[in-house]
Amino acid sequence: MRKTSYVLVLGVFLLVAAGCAENKTRVAEGAGIGGVLGATLGGIIGYQSGHPVEGALIGGAAGAGGGAVVGAQIDKPETKQEQAK
What we know:
It is a single chain. By secondary structure, the chain is mainly alpha-helical. Helices cover 79% and strands 0% of the residues. Helix 1 (2-19) runs antiparallel to helix 2 and helix 2 packs antiparallel against helix 3.
């Protein structure tokens, strides 16, 4: 069961990262990365208090929100094609 969860999380992360290639800002990337990191840390902290699922859900939501805010402030560098225009 654990191995399946890790593969699923990795697959979602790769999908989010691949889908952000055309965005001019990093909102979705920040939300995806923040959500994964927040869920991981929330799960660890929640495990210590006896509530790993709730900790992962809360951590994932907080991480996604924070990551989206940070990602909105970071512009992607322009590609050579966009600079040539």
